[in-house]
Batch of 2 targets.
Target 1
Amino acid sequence: MRRVFNNEPGPSETRVVGRFVEVALPTPVDRVFDYLVPDELAARAGVGHRVSVNFANRELQGFVVAQKDASPLLRHQIKEILKAPDEAPLVNESMLRLTRWMADYYACSWGEALQAVLPAVVRSGRPRKTLTVVKLARTREETLAEVARLEATKSEVRGQRSEVAAFPEARNTEHETRTTDSRSARYAKILRTLVTFEEDFTPGHLAEKLGYSLAPFNTLRKQGWLTYEKKPVDFGGVGSLGGEERVPENLTGEQQLALDRITSSVDRDEFKTFLLFGITGSGKTEVYIRAIARAIEHGKSAIVLVPEIALTPQTVRRFSHRFENVTFLHSSMTDAERREAWTRIKDGTSRVVVGPRSALFAPVKDLGLIVVDEEHEHTYKQDSAPRYNARDTAIMRARLEHAAVILGSATPCLETWKNAQEGKYELLELRSRPTGSSEFRIQNSELPSLGLPSVEIIDMQRECHEQHALAWFSKRLRGACAQALEQGEQVIIFLNRRGYHTVLSCQQCGEALTCPNCTTHMSFHRQLNKAVCHYCLETRELPKRCPTCDGGPVKQLGIGTEKLEEEMKLMFGGFNIARMDSDAMKTREDYESTLEAFRQGETQVLVGTQMIAKGLDFPNVTVVGVVAADIGMNLGDFRSFERTFQIVTQVAGRAGRGEKPGTVIVQTFKPTHPAIVCASRQDYRGFVAGEMEHRRISQYPPFSRLVLVTVEAREKPKGEELARQIAMTARDFGKMNQGSVFDVSDPFEAPMAKLRGRHRTQVMIKAKGFREVRAVVDRIQPLVKVQEKLRVSIDVDPLDMM
Ligand code: ADP
Ligand code: ZN
């Protein structure tokens, strides 16, 4: 090993001469760390290589982001790289630049961004074919007895704790841990949850739900209460179903125009973003396919991003039919499949990659085009660090690699629409649905008579009044369903809320039953006959009397898809009814077989959540019902009208895809709300005009950029104190830099005020643009780092305001 020491001040203070690298580690702190490269690893520790290093007495994996000949660190501070497992770098120059940009933009560390772009299996190199699940090691009875014993211990600890509390000077760090669940309480809760749910949980998933570390699981294993079992991962790849695939011979004039504009950029290796704006079925996918074909002709590759649930058999069939060696990436792939796919993409065997959010980072050779289908979808935003939006990151990647981007949507988000209006993106519009050779033209806000289904809005307030009850089905919807079914046609019923009864509330005071650990309404779980919190798995017996007013009984109110399915079965007994939501569809096979049965006509009614609103094309569906179109409109999120508009528009596009005309029946308590009225006319421009104006007046995006800071604390005042400091710092920055920050809120209790026992306080910052966001975040970040026992998240361009 070659090392030359400068002998001057004393051995421990000398600088080391040698070969150094800067390593980005997945720590929350955004900085790089210097390490010395031992000679034997020199060939494997270049820029973009993965390395293992010692960091704070732990072995961590990171990426080399720079090489250098000297380090300012002194001899006693510098450490050597421990391992460098790969011969070739895992990330290239452009991916390094992209991740650096993500770290800057989304306020995460470079190491976190790098971790997000590489699937875990590629990083670890160990393919995983099995899943570890937690099981009870003894019988239910024995376990319940132990739970009872542990819970008795728990109350003793409580007693001790109040003594400690009475003598504040006796407080110490030990006390800090005791204010949360005591150790035996944790054991009891883990065991009880497993007895109650009888589901397969992975240790990590269950620990996260309960808000614990893995330590109590390990103890319970040692004590013989739990065992870990290996379960084979049984998700197959995306099966490609057989079936005909019609390739349209000629594009419509509008499609051709759009394609010409896109290919002119692809031909010239030009970075450019296009917004392909067209209703469902207007032929956007056909344009994507031909643009991709052009990129491939030039020897380039393409990435197609779709929302996860849109990765349907139809999508798979369509792309596999048109291209050789398409790779489909999806979240239920096994590690072995994922690694194999990664290799195929990297060596250029596969030139087309289709997948959700993370497919954006596929290491394609010579990127020519990125398609972001349904660009307005919220699933493109990751809800943990790095909190990136794949749509915006796609545009950045395309810029770095001189590629074109197509954002496709029938209901573009307002940010995208504004960019298109201002000429930052080129707007390409498909106004009509191709039907054979003829085209049907849709005028802006007139009710289309051809090619699109007719839409009826039903005022549910009046309906309930007439029926003298809280009704979920209007007479009209029931009648239309009955008529369609009798004629051998099919029906889709949409409700954007899963579950059985969604709220348990008191008949007398109206108060809903909430989870003691989270500020969420508990739902009724039919199989358990208990109230359950979906966030932390807390279960409660249904109280006989309301815990708030001690008066009336707690009744199950509201409706979810499960209840809806049951009501449909009562109304239409003779027909087969299937439900599609994330509870019913546990695996991809469930999903595919449910759809296939519907396509074959074995089931006549499909009831479901948003899952059914996506990219499905069934010619025999003539009635689509939207049960409660305004669900979610009262959530107080400034995007809730936009969401409602998007969902209703999407669902309304489901009927009448075949020869038969379709009817869409939208039931709502707000029949005159622009989000509902415009959606029923497929009038995007009408809706956006009004909504833009609201956003402009209140300075919400796209007229500002938001940063949402969330502080989570076991002790509420501590969280609030930090939130106050953050707000103050942001305001001070705004005062010093006039015009950069529009508004900083006072700290407020998050809509989800408590989650897994942590109190949540938020601060919302509205800043002028990206640079200003960056500058404010730079001021806030030092405050965040010094706080222990508090969890802080900084969400740039947040979509979820809870
Ligand atoms: P979108 O992606 O906008 O929902 P698609 O590209 O899926 O629309 O097109 C909807 C249907 O119309 C598909 O069945 C497709 O094969 C068909 N189609 C698309 N373009 C044409 C065309 N130019 N001529 C005839 N049929 C077409
Ligand atoms: Zn809870």
Note: Residues 515, 517-518, 520, 533, 535-536, 538 surround zinc ion (ligand 2) (CB under 6 Å).
Target 2
Amino acid sequence: MQIGGKAHNPRSGEWLGSLNPATEEVWAMIPRASVEDAEVAAAAAHEALRGAWAKLTPTQRGALMFRLADLLERDAELLAQLDARDNGKPISELRKQYAYLPQHWRYFGGLVDKLEAQVIPVDRNGVFNFTRHEPVGVVLAITPWNSPLVIASWKVAPALAAGCTTIVKPSEHASISTLHFAKLVAEAGFPAGVVNVVTGYGHEVGEALVAHAKVAKVTFTGGEAGGRAVSTLAAKHLKPTVMELGGKSPVIVFDDADLDRAVPTVAVGIFSSSGQSCVAGSRLLLQAGIYDEFLRRLIDRARAIVVGDPLSAETAMGPITTRAQFEMIQSHLFDAHEQGAICAFKGERSSNFPSGGLFLPPHIFTGVTPQMRVWREEVFGPVLAVMRFETEAEAVAIANDSPFGLAAGLWTRDLDRALRLHKELQAGTVWINSYRGVSSMTPLGGFKRSGFGRENGQEAVREFLQTKSVWMEYQ
Ligand code: TXE
């Protein structure tokens, strides 16, 4: 681990095996941090907050973030290779993610010295009032396994831009790229303690950090159960949180949609990362007029997906990252059949599909009703549920009938309809005639049970600032 600018072994002396999901073999060991390590990390982050990090000017802090961006660019291929082994995401997708990541750091590095405050003409004579934006303090970033370093960067870059110091607790299932990132932070020359990386279990070191008095705010991405545990514990300590908890995002395709664009985008929206994506478009609503043609073309598209070795450039879908997730998806498939859904398509092993590993091909279910589990719950796997609709009002009602609200997709050539409907859809992101676009520059986050707070964009920096109002009286 990296704590206080130094390599740090777990005080317990215990290590955990990290599995390569394509083989289910241990390919790396990660430290199993305990309460004692949490203590050291919190102290290091707290010391840097008022010390070395605060002494740098905003421009100097931004320059360090630019330097880190350069190092991420230099090591992009290595990071892609690490994640492909650690979480099984296809190398083609990882290369794109890591090609973009330096830009993310440059975006937030560029914001550091542009956080202007206000002078407020309060309604009193002889008063000069102004605001200051100050860092909230030490930020704990708890991250999942599906895009470990990208999601860590969504949290750490805006927190650093705000002047906070950070502790990252990556998923025990995919910590390796974040551990490499910690080395790059040191190489970039960040003062000790500004970014600390602590690995291990959520219920051990994770909870110790959430509860720690020196941690001021927690930003979490993960599942609902983990999110609930973290926000409950944080609430007990009156600590604010940002929560990104996944979704069950609807994609609505109207009869007038451009199917040449919609079909491949819908397929990517659900099947990339083997469906292990918070914004996966997992509920497809097709208008009656295009239902049959769309489904036929989508199945052709899904049939062409190469499921296999994540390190092969042709692979579009790698394995499921964890055995627990693999079994969870199997239980969804079982229930979908039990509850009467029709499996309209099930993919097959591709030629480079290895024999072992946690591989699951794409599935498309029709004959789905709104009560079915496959329609209501997040599967977090390559499973698409499809429903037919007739009218616009019906589509919106079905789309919004979900406890989640992370994202939604809308396919239509009717501009009036697009302008009408984007307001109706209860989701933090609405993609019109597109899907899955994410940028450092625009906010991402959930409505309803998909979470609260925002990542990315200038809003992400505001999550880590607190406003001070300063009054001066003069005569
Ligand atoms: O995530 P967890 P899991 C969903 C997906 C999946 C489910 C569970 O539906 O089936 O989550 O996946 C840390 N105190 N998503 O179990 O447990 C944990 O160590 C402190 C959606 O892998 O939520 C890890 O670092 N920390 C998602 C992080 O939380 C705790 C991405 C996430 O792990 C903790 C991944 C605790 N009590 C899965 N419990 C998305 N939103 O994109 C867990 N952690």
Note: The mean pLDDT is 97.
